[in-house]
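May I ask for an example protein's residues together with how it folds?

___
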Amino acid sequence: MRNKKNIILVSVICILLFVAGTGLGLRLSSMKDKDNDNTQNSSFDINDYIEVGNYSSLKVSIAVTQDDIDAEIDDLRDQSTTYKKLNGTVKNGDMIYADIVGYVDGLRADDTCTRDYVEVGSGDWLDGFEEALIGRKTGTTAEFTVSIPMGTFGNSDIDGHNVQYKVKIEYICGDEIVPEYNDKFVQSISEYKTTKEYEKYLKKELLKENQEDRAEYAWDELLEICKVKKYPDDMMESARTIVMQGYYGMAALYGTSVDEVFQTFGYNSEEDFRNSDLDELARDTVKENLVAMALSEKEGISYTEEDYNAVVDEEYSYNTEEYASKEDYEKINRKALEDETLIQVVKNWLADNVNFLTN
C-alpha cells in the first residue's frame, strides 16, 4: 500500500543486514591461490589482518534499565495516540484517517485494503494516491485508479496492474491526544492494575528478549574489542561491489532509478553515497568476516550441514521471487551462505561462552 520508496527502504535494509552478516561471498580462501598486495599464497595468516581482543574476559550487559522501560512506555503511548477529529476539505499537508479498499478488474484485492492514517503530500504512499485525496470532503469517498509498480505487494495479481481505489475519508486529524501514563492507561492496555505492576512485567519481558538476543549483544561487544590491522584489497573490492549490487537490485525490482533508492536513505545520488559511506560500510562488512574467521580458527568452531541448511532456508525465504528455485539460489550464493553460517555459529559459541550481566 505504501509508496515504493518505503518498500525500497525496508528491502534494502534487509539486504544490507545480510551484506553485513555474510560478506556476501568475500573470502580469503581465494586469496591463497594468487599473489596480491596483502597475502603470499601458502604464507597466508588471518592474524596478519585482525587482532582479536581478549574475549575470554568479556562481560556483556543484557540488563534492563529504567531508560529501556521508559522507551517501551513511550512507544505504547505513541501507539495509543489519537487525534481530534475535524471535518472539512482535504488539502496538501493534512493527515487524514481513511477506509481504503482496492479492486483489480472489478474484484476486491484484500492486500490493498486497510484503515489507516494518510499524510497527504508526504510521498509515503503510491504515486498519485495522496494527490487524488486533495480537495475531497470528509465523509465522502474518493474513487481513482493507481498503477502498481512491480514488487510493491509481492502479489502477481496486483503488482503491474491498475488498482481502482475507493477511499472513504473518515476525518482530518487535528491535535494529537496522547494518553497520560497512569494506572488507568495501564488497565486499558493490559491485565495489570497499576503502573508499578506493569513496569515489573515489562522488565521481565525485556530481559527475556535480551537473553534471547544475547548472541547479538556478545557479537557487538566482540567487534568493539577487535582491531583490523589491514583490510585485504580483494575483500574490500568485493564488499564495495556487493553493497552496490544490493541497491541496483532494488532499483530494478521496483522499477525506479538507482538515485531514487539512494535518496530514500538521505543521499543526493549514487555518487554522493560512494563518496561518503560506501567504504565505511564495506570495511564493517569485511571486519565481521575477519573476526568470525579468526575466532573460528582460535576456538576450532565449525558448522554442521544442518546449520548451513537452516541458513539457506531462511535466506532463500527472503529471495524467492528473484530465483527459479532454492537450488539456484544456493548455487549462486553458496560462499555467501557459508560465510553467514560461520558467523552464526560463532555468535552462538559466544552466547554459550561469554559472561552476561543481568543486573
